[in-house]
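User: Hey, quick favor. My workstation is busy. Could you predict this chain's structure for me?
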Amino acid sequence: MNLFTPSIIFLPFLLGACANSPSQLLSSEYAESCHLAERSNDLNSAEKQCYLALVNTESSNNPKLRSLRLYKLGKIRLQLAKFHDSELLIKESLQIEESLGSTPKTIGSRLIDLSSSLAEQGRWQEGATLLERLLPIAPQFSKLERTRIGQLLIQYSRQLKSLNQAELAKRFKATASIIVDNDTYFFRSVK
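Assistant: No problem, here it is.
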């Protein structure tokens, strides 16, 4: 009996499993550098590291990892006021997460940041649609995250009122106070 036969059978599998490892390993290293640079408030360096982390996911067949890298780079670019770039990155991440059937909170986080990016571009109508999708899942977020959602709703409320969308503005404003003020907030339709 030849002891090397099983090794030959599994060799293609092992080679295939290792093919993406170097780029995924590099992606992880760059992602960690991105995280450290962001924590140090060196957003320009964070952007470069996050970009390299994203580039190193292209050869992998891991859409979840790609989505994570797209989202992180999008959030960094949002902080750098590169709103259009941020929008495109977060939108692509959102599409991946939706196609994967990810958790509502994962999708909701992207809706929050995408609506922030659209607000910064003065695209209130598009952002309002995203926020309406977010309202039913807002209870899943922490108090701090709900405070951010509430602030975003207030910001949108003011702009929508000036765009003659008084009903939606009123609903966003009322929902914002419920979300922020109540630790046991559960979505209910505010009319």
